[in-house]
Design goal:
Elements lengths: L2 H12 L9 H11 L6 H16 L8 H10 L5 H12 L3 H6 L3 H9 L7 E5 L8 H4 L6 E6 L2 H14 L4 E4 L10 E8 L2 H7 L3 H8 L1 E10 L11 H15 L2 E6 L3 E7 L2
Parallel strand pairs: 1-2, 1-4, 2-3, 4-5
Antiparallel strand pairs: 5-7, 6-7
Helix pairs in contact: 1-2, 1-3, 2-3, 4-9
Length: 267
């Protein structure tokens, strides 16, 4: 397909209201990859829109971003217990973090029981996970940096962190598309590795491989969205185990009712 046709599709999608919050590099990456399979601009746009629907996963939001932002702006966040109760309500606005709520009090103690104490934590494809900082800070004073390709999540996270944990932040980046190095003591890929593999086979494994991090914790849901056992998990765990064997890294594991945690120890 000619470059002008590709650029036209990119321009149409990056200016579309539906995708205005998606990082432009995400759209460029998908257009270029889908463009290898068709020479028809209309077909390319159709394919990329279908792929964007899966990648952006906007259907996982159970509360609209403007309502979440209003809640952040109006919240009384001074009382620690009140803050935690409010954060639970915010976390319920996304399917993935809502799933974690029954295990939230145990989540970070279990996770940090797998790794040495970090000074910095990189949370990749963080979505609403910055709202778990009250629980993270109960077990660690590590500086938290989230990354997400959705500007809505970035804005929500930063609005909350600026008022509560000003040493922390969320950055608007697509860690798959731009290939920029991420450096931290600990990287988190919480229930997102399998989504990355769905976007592009091998993408999640390649990301784990190139992360400049002493430890990487990858988690998987124990159940799919339909309530059945998440049968895809064993395949991805074996991929990570094989990568670790090839690189001479160690692996440790822990389980919660809603989530399986795989810690990869590089250092």
């Amino acid at each position: 397909m000619t470059s002008p046709a590709v650029h036209k599709v990119i321009a149409r999608l990056t200016s579309a209201a539906k995708y205005r919050d998606i990082h432009p590099e995400t759209i460029v990456d998908l257009v270029r990859r889908e463009g290898r399979g068709t020479g028809d601009p209309a077909e390319l746009e159709r394919r990329v829109r279908a792929r964007l629907h899966k990648v952006a996963a906007l259907h996982l939001l159970t509360t609209r971003p403007p309502a979440l932002r209003r809640a952040v702006d109006r919240a009384d966040l001074d009382d620690p217990q009140g803050r935690r109760d409010w954060c639970r309500q915010m976390l319920g606005g996304h399917f993935s973090t809502a799933e974690r709520l029954p295990d939230l009090d145990d989540f970070y103690p279990v996770l940090f029981g797998l790794v040495p104490p970090p000074r910095t934590v990189a949370d990749l494809a963080c979505a609403l996970n910055p709202f778990t900082l009250p629980w993270l800070r109960q077990v660690s004073e590590a500086r938290y940096v989230g990354y997400d390709f959705n500007a809505s999540f970035v804005g929500l996270g930063n609005a909350f962190l600026a008022r509560t944990y000003p040493d922390c932040e969320v950055q608007h980046e697509d860690v798959l598309a731009d290939g920029r190095p991420v450096s931290a003591d600990l990287a988190l890929l919480l229930k997102t590795y399998h989504c990355m593999e769905g976007r592009r086979t091998g993408a999640g494994q390649a990301l784990v491989d190139r992360l400049d991090c002493r430890d990487v914790v990858v988690s998987f849901p124990t159940r799919a969205m339909n309530g059945r056992a998440a049968v895809f998990v064993s395949r991805h765990v074996e991929e990570l185990a094989e990568l670790a064997r090839d690189r001479g890294w160690r692996i440790s594991r822990a389980s919660l009712a809603s989530e399986e945690l795989i810690a990869i120890h590089k250092g």
